[in-house]
Amino acid sequence: MTKTHDERSTVQTWEMWFTPYPRVVRIARSQVCRTLTGWGVPEDAVDTAVLITSELITNAIRHCDTRHLVHVCVRDDGAELLLEVSDQSPNPPRPTVAPSHAESGRGLFLVRAAASGFGARHRYPVGKTVWATVPRCAALA
């Protein structure tokens, strides 16, 4: 965890690299929950952030080969949480329309509905970062 102090605010940062296997989704969820709770983030914002992180890391793992790690970073500036998941794939996330009987395929729609902001950017020198923001005082809509 990193803390940056200036005259206006304190920014807290937590990050971790994960192997791209499905079992790490549970570990990432647990770590993000523990970190945000330790920072004193309200429970509703923690729940939303954990849900979003889970969806983003699941997508990264699903589209990542096992030779590369997935990076998760969480920042809290006191007003908003920034959740980032990075992987080696240069392809931006694309929501798909899942059939009603499908057990998956709705993750990005869920992220967009729960987050106050959402996007993706190229990660130098390779890959992408998918990010979402959650107000520190927000509840799931």
Number of helices: 3
Per the principal axes of the C-alpha atoms, what is the gross shape? Answer: globular
CATH fold annotation: Heat Shock Protein 90
CATH class placement: Alpha Beta
Identify the strand order in the major beta sheet.
1-2-3-4-6-5
Quaternary organization: single chain
The low-confidence parts are none
**N to C succession of SSEs:** EEHHEEHEE
Largest sheet: 6 strands, antiparallel
The proportion of residues in beta strands is 25-35%
CATH architecture: 2-Layer Sandwich
User: Which value, in Å, is the CA radius of gyration?
Assistant: 15 Å
Helix content: 25-40%
Indicate the structural class: alpha+beta
For the termini, the CA-CA separation is 29 Å
Total beta-strand segments: 6
CATH homologous superfamily placement:
Histidine kinase-like ATPase, C-terminal domain
Name the descriptors.
141 residues; alpha+beta; Heat Shock Protein 90; six-stranded antiparallel sheet; 3 helices; 6 strands; globular
Report on the architecture of this protein:
This protein has 141 residues and is of the alpha+beta class. The protein has one domain: 2-Layer Sandwich (Heat Shock Protein 90), CATH 3.30.565. It is built from 3 helices and 6 strands, in the order ββααββαββ. It has a 6-stranded antiparallel beta sheet, with helices on one face. The mean pLDDT is 86.
In short:
The protein has helices at 24-38, 43-62, 107-114, and strands at residues 2-5, 10-18, 70-76, 80-87, 117-122, 128-135. Helix content is 30%, strand content 30%.
SSE layout and pairing:
Elements (H helix, E strand, L loop, with lengths): L1 E4 L4 E9 L5 H15 L4 H20 L7 E7 L3 E8 L19 H8 L2 E6 L5 E8 L6
Antiparallel strand pairs: 1-2, 2-3, 3-4, 4-6, 5-6
Helix pairs in contact: 1-2, 2-3
